[in-house]
Every structure is written in structure tokens, then in C-alpha cells.
Amino acid sequence: MVRASVVLVAALLTSVFIAGSAKMMQPKNVMEKEIRLALLDEIQGENIKANLRVLTKEPHQAGTEANERVAKAIEDMYTAAGLQKVHTLTYDVLLSYPDWDQPNTVAIRNPSKGVDIFKSKGVTEPILPDEQGAPHAGHQWLAYSAPGIVEGDVVYAHSGTPTDFARLKEMGIDVTGKIAMMRYGQSFRGNKVAEAQAAGARAAILFSDPAEVAQGNRDDVYPKSIWMPPEGVQRGFIMNGHGDLLTPLYPAKPGAFKSKTAEEAKAEKILPSIPAVPISYTTAYEILSRMSGPTVFSDWQGGINVTYRLGPGLRDGLKTVVDVKSSLQNRHIHNVVGYIPGHDEEDRYVILGNHFDAWVYGSIDPNSGTAILAEVARAMVELTKTTSWKPARSIIFVAWDAEEYGLIGSTEFVEEFVQQLGGRAVAYINMDCFQGNFTLDANAVPSLIDVVIDVAKRIPNHVEEEVQAGRKTLYDTWIRTNPGPNGEPDIKPLVGGTDHVPFLTFAGVPTIDFRMENTTRKSYPLYHSLFETPFVNEHLYDKPDFAMHRSIGRYWAEIARTLADAPLLPFNVTRSAEEMHSNYVVELKKALAALPADPNLDEAEQQIKMLEKASEKFLYRAQHFSTHALLVKDDDRKLRGINERIMMTERCFLNPRGSPGASQNRHVLYSISDKDTYAGRVMAALYDAIDDYVANSDKKTSGRAVAEQISIIYHAVHCATNTLKPFL
Ligand SMILES: *[C@@H]1O[C@H](CO)[C@@H](O)[C@H](O)[C@H]1NC(C)=O
Ligand SMILES: *[C@@H]1O[C@H](CO)[C@@H](O)[C@H](O)[C@H]1NC(C)=O
Ligand SMILES: *[C@@H]1O[C@H](CO)[C@@H](O)[C@H](O)[C@H]1NC(C)=O
Ligand SMILES: *[C@@H]1O[C@H](CO)[C@@H](O)[C@H](O)[C@H]1NC(C)=O
């Protein structure tokens, strides 16, 4: 059925195009609509489903032979799809593994008798052995944990945020020498372990609380529903930073010099120096049900059926034992790359990416995305064969390796090609995984917000009830479930945690990152567990035709087509300027005004005035530029010049020195704060400087640091204004 309609459209297109390949001859509007419809039609749910099965046959952590087989499978998919110049890029990076023969455990010990009254198995048993039964699939571990055996007293530290540890301190509970037990959620797990270590803990235990992962009836969990079953465990990495640890700022090409050692990374607190282990809520029950000490603050109680206590320690003198075996290893990783060369501008890139390495089978994170991307590639190439359509700019498809270990594959790639990307990349569009089936959720830099919204309005809704309620497009459900200010969906410039981060923060390439999700903007319950196998996608989230997965593919493809084809890049620089002028600067002034009067902040006040003026000029210039740019039609040389100025305006926001203490975080507006790797706080380095000023007794130095951070943003805004002007 679907095939037939494609052929029809193809025939129509061929007749429209046959006149010649020169793009000026194409009746643009008619053509664009036909191409769009043909592209949407070409993307097939069944293909995504088949791809997913191929990619999730075995557990495939980065650096393993199994993951090399997945890389090869993707290469084959890209080649079969008809992408050109398909190849892999190899890097030699520091990874971490458990001891597959000796699982990590948590035990409860009676020290007087020298016996363990409870010991976790350290391995989750499969529920669907056909999909989950590979050797070692069930191992529970956290990558980059220090190895070690720690016997001691547990303290419950809630989510392990700085605020949580401060509250424990106020309660007079000393974490020094203890084992910090923390639940997942609220912050990145690596930050939790780092906070525990800083508070003096000798080990960390992380658990999934049913309050987050099993909200329904306890009998209604996986495989009956999407809620985490009793033995499910979230894996993940706990290093603080991204990219290969041993080659900061430079690509870890095999044989290349390693400028840092693992010991140095430990001393710098990038690598944790305490053992850490993840457990299920069933194992957490064994500990929490025996805890002594005061009951927790009411907002710290979780969903396990006992009254949570702070500790320290268990009743009756019982001790807790954390036993972690792990090792750091240098391994090869492989990014897979393929192209659809641009017809008019080969050296302008629209880059689409997702990672393929997984903690276990990865059917949601990340291979739902990998499977969709391969289908987007196939559909786009197919269109170039069945019609005379060719993207005007090159579209690059990339599958990243070792994202799960800290965005390593993408970071090394960006470090290797930072100059070329800086000059040639139009945008990077990431989709990590399909983690829910209800609504789109997209984040983007301000200049690309118009694109993410406009495209969402062109993609039919896949949720039947929504369509029946009159919400016919992805946009209609998105704006209803995730409304933000200004009558638009809530779109953040950058939320951390996946592969768009190095593109934006190191190379200044504008990014879009999106996903399909439930309405809550949270993770999904089975996240990083053994149970992420195709059954979840096929039976719990989607229908046999994979219509929901297809929807995401359609959105991705249409964004790519839009950015690759539009003669004038559809970036809205006025939006960037408006955001700066009416939002960031205003918020910054408020933050400074809230501080007590202090002459040590005079310089900062002066810099704010400079920034305010500069942002007014930027706004004026952007409006002028946009009006002018729209008048430039059908003059390729002029358009290319205008487009180049748009691209280079974005690059102005890179500070070549990076944020203090984090030279890879070069974007002055959208770098991720090391204080919380998941959060996307705008102007993080500046707000970190303000926090330091508040906390620091040396007000003179810390006040000057605030002024300096403001001045860096001022220079960036001034640069953007100058870039929009044709003359200096
Ligand atoms: C609480 O949960 C545990 C573990 O699931 C179970 O063994 C126990 O019987 C439950 N206790 C009550 C009072 O429901
Ligand atoms: C989304 O999640 C909420 C809360 O977890 C749940 O009540 C709701 O049914 C979910 N919606 C869909 C469409 O799955
Ligand atoms: C969407 O996912 C929810 C689980 O969150 C599931 O209950 C529902 O059936 C799914 N919808 C479809 C159409 O498969
Ligand atoms: C660009 O954004 C501004 C500010 O949000 C808006 O007023 C304007 O209409 C947008 N321009 C285009 C061409 O959509």
C-alpha cells in the first residue's frame, strides 16, 4: 500500500523535475510539498523494527567485541541504505569494566558471628530469557567506580545533592567514613558519588526507588507494564566530565600522546576514588528495613514499604559491606559515518547523530534511535533515487560509540574535526532514544526554535486519541503537554547528558536534541536495565507497525531536509538576540541586585552596563540583518555570504579558554555546569562565579571573577553584532 503511493509521488516528482537539475528551474513550493510528503511516506516502521532486532542481539558495551559487531552491522545498514563514503573512525580511550566472573555485591554482615545474613546476587536474572539470557547480561555495576571492599555503616543521603548533604550535616549526621546510600533521580549519578566522596564517604550505594520507577501496583510491573520489576537495576558511568579522560582537548587517535594519567584524573576528582554500586529496590529494602537512627525528613521518604531512617548504621550492630571489582582499560571505540553529499554545497553539513553503545541490550537507550536513524538514511537516499531530489547541502549520519562512558565517541570526533566543523557545520541534530510514546520533546538553541516548531507542525500525530481530539500534528500534543512561556512549547537551549553537548559546547555548532516521551520530561522506568530489549518497544510502547517510532523518524528527516535545502538558512538570529536582551541579561541583573551591596561588585556592575548596551545593539543589528537577508533571493553568492554570517554569529559565543577549570566547556551561554551534569543552566560559568562569590570570604577576588565572566559574555555579544554586519 505505502509502496504504491510512493511510486505515484515519485512519478509525479520525476515529471516536475525532468526539465533539468538546475535548482533555479524547480517550481519550489509545489516541489517542496511533494518531496516532504514522499519523504514522510518513505519512512517505514517495519524497517525500524527490523533494524532494532539486528542491533540488540547481545549486550554491547563500548570497547567490547560485541559492540564492534554492532558497529559493523551499522556500517552494513548504512552501505545497504546507499549512503556514500561509509567508514569508521577509531579512537583509543579509557573505559571501565566489572569483573565478569565475580559480580559486585552488597551484603549485610553480623560482625560478631562473622556471617552475612544477606548478600545481593549482583546479577539480575532474565525475565525473558530468549532476549535477555546472554552470559553476564545481568551484571550490576557502575563504570569508573573504584574497586574495593568497604565494611561500614550506612547513611541515607536521599538524592545525594549538595543540599541533601548539607541537611545531613545540620542534623549532626557525619558522613565521614560511612557508606552513602542514595536514590537515583534529581541529579546525575556521577555528581551523587562525587558529593558522597567529598562528604567523606568511603563507598556509595545507588538504588532505584519505586517512587520513581514502580509507581503502579507492585504486581503491575515489567513485563506487564513499563514499570521496573523488583530485581531491575540502573547501570551507568560515574566519572565527572566528558570525552576521553587521558587526552583532554585532543582526539584520542590510536598511538596519540596521552597527556593525563588515571591517577591525575583521580586527584582532580574527575574519576571517583571510592567504590560505588547500583542495587534494585528489593536489595534496598533489605538495608532500609534494618536502618537505625532518626526517621528521614518527610520529603525524603521514598516508595519502599518501610519508614526510611537516616542512620548511621543498621540495628543490632549489623554492618553493610560493599564489594566492587572493576578495572580501567584502554580500548578501541568506533564511530560509524556515512554521507548523502550535498548537490549544491558539499562542504556544508547537516549532521544527524545518535550513539549505539549500550549498558546491556539497549533497545530504548540508544538503539531505538540508532534503528530510526538508519531508516531515515535509507528513506532519504531512496528519495534521491526515485525522484530527482538531492539535498542542497550534505547530510552526515553518525553513530557514536562510548556515549555511555561520557560522550566519548562524539567528543573525540569534535576534537578531531573542530576546525572543519566550525567552518562547515550548519547544525547537529541528536536523538538519543525513543523513551515514551506520547509526545515530542525538543530542545534547541534559540536561533533554531522556529525550525523545531515549524517542522513539528508538519508531522502527523501518531496518537489516535489525540487526533480524535483534534490535535492532528506532533506540535499540537507537544504544546498541550509541555507548554512554556510565550504560547510556545517549553524549549531549553541545552540539556546535558548526550552527544550534542560537545558540538555545542566545544565547537559552537548549533544543536537540536529531541526525543519522544511521556508527558513528564523525566527518564523512563526501565532506563539502563537488563529489561531494555525489543519486547519493550514492540509490545509495551508501540504497535506492531512501529508507528510511534516512525513518527520520530519523520520529524528527524524533515528537520534534516529543511536545514539541508533552505536557500537562506532558517536560523532566526533575532530570537538569539532577543533571548539575550530580554531574558538572560534581565535575569543576570536580578541575580546581582539580590546580592548585598558591596564595592567589590562595582566592576561587575560596570560590566553589566556594557553587556546591556551590547545586547541592545545586537538586537537592533539582528532585526536589521533578518529584514535584509529575506530580500536576497536567487543570488547564490550573496546567499552563501549571508548564510556564512549566520553560522559565524553562533561561533562568537565560544570562549577559546573555556570555563574556569573546564577548558572543554567553551560556550559562554550553554556549557554544562560541572555542579550538575544533567542540568542546563544558561551562562553556567558566570552563575558558578556568583555562587563562589557568595560562598567565598575573599570578596575582592571572587567579585572580580564575576566581573570577568560578565565581560566574556559582553565580548561574545559584541562579536555577534560585528559578524552580522558586512563591514567592521
Ligand atoms: C514490604 O516489601 C518487602 C519486599 O518487597 C516484602 O518482603 C514485605 O513483605 C513487605 N512488607 C509489608 C509490610 O508489606
Ligand atoms: C505518563 O506518565 C504518567 C505518570 O507516570 C502516567 O500517569 C500516564 O498514564 C503516562 N501517559 C502515557 C501516555 O503513557
Ligand atoms: C504507550 O505507552 C504506554 C505506556 O507508557 C502504553 O500503556 C500504551 O499502550 C502505549 N500506546 C500505544 C498506542 O501503544
Ligand atoms: C524571529 O524571531 C522573532 C522573535 O521571536 C520573531 O518576532 C520573528 O517573527 C521571527 N522571524 C521569523 C522570520 O520567523
UniProtKB/TrEMBL annotation:
EC code(s) of this entry: 3.4.17.21
Keywords: Carboxypeptidase, Glycoprotein, Hydrolase, Membrane, Metal-binding, Metalloprotease, Protease, Signal-anchor, Transmembrane, Transmembrane helix, Zinc
GO cellular component, one term: membrane
Main localization, broad class: membrane
PANTHER family registered for this protein in UniProt: GLUTAMATE CARBOXYPEPTIDASE 2 HOMOLOG, N-ACETYLATED-ALPHA-LINKED ACIDIC DIPEPTIDASE
Cofactor requirement: Zn(2+)
Protein name: Glutamate carboxypeptidase 2 homolog
Lipid bilayer topology: Single-pass type II membrane protein
Organism: Pristionchus pacificus
Subcellular location: Membrane
Catalytic reactions of this protein: Release of an unsubstituted, C-terminal glutamyl residue, typically from Ac-Asp-Glu or folylpoly-gamma-glutamates
One annotated GO molecular function: metallocarboxypeptidase activity
Family that this chain belongs to: Belongs to the peptidase M28 family. M28B subfamily.
One Pfam family from the record: PA
InterPro entries assigned to the protein according to its UniProt record, in alphabetical order: PA_dom_sf, PA_domain, Peptidase_M28, Peptidase_M28B, TFR-like_dimer_dom, TFR-like_dimer_dom_sf
